[in-house]
Design brief:
Helices cover about 40% and strands about 20% of the residues. It has about 475 residues and is of the alpha/beta class. Strands 9-10-8-7-6-5-4-1-13 form a 9-stranded mixed β-sheet, sandwiched between helices. The longest helix is centred in the middle third of the chain and has 17 residues.
Length: about 475
């Protein structure tokens, strides 16, 4: 696999490019981005969901359950979560999740093959072991979970216990994603996340002892107090513990959405240049340790399914970041969760009371969404190609949608000219190639094809691209 630009590379990202392209832009975990979601025609939404039951060649389902509770809020958090004093408060929520799955199974045929399960949050392991067991039993009773399904869960090591881990193992969970963020206790303290290395090591050794090979570590860069040397020390500890997959997320500072993030401004946030330096240096470490680069911010060992999905062209990007299983319909249950079924997006109510009351009244608690038209579907597909594979074969896109893609996208391709001149993309043989340097600016490249961007009117809705 081609090695992308690295910090030792003479083609290192020129400063003027970093300055020029450090703008606000979507992360494209959906297209259009979620800020364009609005009221949807529910009849049409459900008609499109039902139509997927009739597919002759059903790709199957992916199910996401959102557990929006945490013991304490980390100051950098951009997730939809609530601080709950004790796990007992979550019992009603678990019942609502079970009820929502059953409501959805009245529309989406529960006999469709369920190929992926993911629990995220918040903190799924905030729930007591008994509640987790109740939830997972109901899940398996409701859906046709395939024997080889990938079952993953996000674990906050701080609230992990052997009892809770055992529940996941008993229900066949085979991938555990640990929220590490950074191993430097000073950095963690500053962002109000008091987690020590021993806790992570204990969780890793317990899971390995129980035969779990598939571990993800989530890291974040761009936090106050993070310096290159400390981040490299974190990278070395990560490499020592050898997860099969690493996500290295850029901290997204959006205090107008998440007010608690404002506290980080007083501590001093690193600028674009410092962030780029940290990212490139960590990438070097991971690549030298045998990890392969996946998309814009993931790394995986060659045997990990994410690396295999990249080779097979089945890599996908959605609200969980990069995942496997392109083409699967994503049903997401829980407050704020976003489903992506066929040509639809549907987001559940965000406030807990509205979510609970909706489900308890026997309705799907969808409060907004989006029904894609054909142009949206074409652009969604091309953005997925660029984000996942860093290239876009216009002929293949044209065949898929029965269009002359070069002619259809002529205006967009023309708008790429300045990015071609800056060396971020190359176009030849009806294929758009993202260059090594361009990978770093993939969000800016994709913005060229986003027909909704101009309607954002320069509002501060997105985080910075670097
Ligand atoms: S544990 Fe995760 S979801 Fe909860 S507040 Fe911290 S970052 Fe957010």
């Amino acid at each position: 696999m081609k090695r992308p630009v690295s910090s030792q590379d003479p083609r290192r990202i020129p400063e003027q490019l970093r300055r020029k392209y450090d703008v606000r832009g979507p992360r494209y975990t959906s297209y259009p981005p979620a800020n364009h979601f609005g009221p949807v025609d529910e009849q049409e939404l459900l008609r499109r969901w039902r139509a997927r039951n009739e597919l002759a060649d059903d790709p199957g389902l992916s199910l996401y359950l959102h557990i929006p509770f945490c013991r304490r809020r980390c100051l950098f958090c951009g997730c939809h979560t609530f601080v709950a004093k004790n796990a007992g408060q979550a019992g009603r929520y678990v019942s609502a999740l079970i009820a929502e799955m059953k409501l959805a199974a009245g529309i989406i045929d529960p006999a469709r093959p369920l190929r992926q399960i993911a629990l995220g949050g918040g903190t799924p392991n905030f729930l007591e072991a008994g509640e987790l067991d109740r939830l997972l039993r109901a899940l398996h009773d409701t859906w046709a979970v395939q024997a080889d399904a990938e079952k993953s869960v996000e674990i906050n090591p701080r609230t992990a216990t052997e009892e809770k881990l055992e529940v996941f193992l008993e229900h066949g969970f085979n991938r555990f994603s640990l929220g590490i963020q950074d191993f430097d206790p000073e950095v963690l303290r500053a962002v109000r996340r008091d987690q020590g290395l021993m806790e992570v090591e204990e969780v890793v050794s317990h899971l390995r002892g129980r035969g779990v090979d598939l571990l993800n570590f989530d890291l974040i860069y761009g936090l106050p107090g993070q310096e290159l040397a400390g981040c490299l020390a974190t990278a070395d500890k990560v490499i020592e513990l050898r997860p099969t997959r690493i996500a290295l997320y850029s901290y997204a500072h959006v205090p107008w959405i998440h007010g608690h993030q404002r506290a980080l401004e007083k501590l001093g946030l690193p600028g674009a240049e410092a962030k780029a330096e940290i990212f490139l240096a960590l990438m070097d470490r991971f690549l030298a340790a045998g990890y392969l680069p996946i998309g814009m911010d993931h790394f995986a060992l060659p045997e990990d399914s994410l690396a295999r999905a990249l080779q097979a062209g089945t890599l996908r990007r959605n609200f969980m970041g990069y995942t496997t299983g392109r083409g699967l319909d994503l049903l997401a249950c829980g407050a704020s969760a976003i489903s992506a079924v066929g040509s639809t997006y549907a987001q559940d109510e965000k406030p807990l009371p509205a979510y609970l009351e909706g489900v308890e009244a026997g309705r799907l608690p969808v409060f907004r969404g989006f029904l894609l038209d054909r142009d949206d579907e074409i652009r969604r597909e091309l953005l997925l190609e660029l984000f996942c594979n860093f290239r876009l074969d216009l002929r293949a896109l044209g065949q898929r949608f029965d269009i002359d893609a070069t002619a259809y996208l002529a205006g967009d391709i023309e708008r790429l000219d300045p990015l071609v001149r800056d060396g971020l993309v190359e176009i030849h043989d009806e294929t758009i190639h993202v260059t090594d340097i361009g990978r770093f600016f993939i969000r800016n490249i994709c913005m060229t094809f986003d027909r909704y961007l101009e309607t954002d009117g320069g509002k501060r809705v997105y985080s910075r691209t670097i």
